[in-house]
Amino acid sequence: MKKHIPNAITCANLFSGCIAVVFAFNGDLKTAAYLVLLAGIFDFFDGLVARALNVKSEIGKQLDSLADMVSFGFVPGVVLYQLFLQSDANIPYLAYFGFLVTIFSALRLAKFNIDTRQTEDFIGLNTPMNTLVIVSLPFIKEQYPALIQNSILLAVVTVLLSMLLVSEIKIFSFKLSKLSWEANKYKFIFLILSLLLICFLKFVATPFILVLYISLSILHFKKTT
Predict the structure, then answer these.
(1) How is domain 2-171 classified at the architecture level of CATH?
(2) Residue 179 pLDDT
(3) Which of its termini does the chain have fewer beta carbons within 10 Å around, N or C?
């Protein structure tokens, strides 16, 4: 029975993503964002539980990627699609450009499944972090409407995030083999600063957290090489 527990958690991730898609297409981008957060929690715990129970399997790996494709690939594409529809653009079909992120998320996940270099850490931005940045945009729009309604800026963000997904930038994960400060200094700094940013800025903090994540990852791997 225990071998099915991680897969059940992965299915909960997928279910959350499916509901998020429905809310996003209906224009309720905030509820979609909260469902993505829920999917992210399930995504974190399925791997953790699989390692704790020592029941990692090939089907679990493939199921995880398929679930992630919905929650962290399709959902951000739909959110961008809606944001483009609400932007200042007068080009009818520009909204479909948002699904560029969905395409590159698929490439990212396929690359991850066959890349033996990514057993402990990531090469390229991981899809959950990418999605958190995108689902934060409707919240940022409330405070800075002119910024997020700018179709050119949205297009730049879409292209930039798509490129980061398949980049060769090494990004640390949070699989901690040991809890020492010296070995995980930049990871702990990231967590502390991210929590502070979230406390003060809430969803608006996510673009800053992304920059922090990439910057500290570069420093972390520069130190370990």
Answers:
(1) Up-down Bundle (1.20)
(2) 66
(3) N
Domain locations in the chain as residue ranges: 2-171, 172-225
CA angle 135, 140, 142 (to 5 degrees): 115
CA distances from residue 122 to 92, 115, 127, 138 in whole angstroms, order as listed: 37, 10, 10, 27
Mean pLDDT per block of 10 residues along the chain (225 residues) reads: 86 97 97 96 88 81 93 98 91 92 96 83 93 96 92 96 96 76 86 94 92 94 73
Residue 90's SS3 state is coil
Best CA proximity match to 24, nearest among 138, 159, 142, 149: 138
Q: What b/e readout covers 45-60, taking b as 16+ CB neighbours within 10 angstroms?
A: bbbebbeeeeeeeeeb
Give 170's strand partners: 123
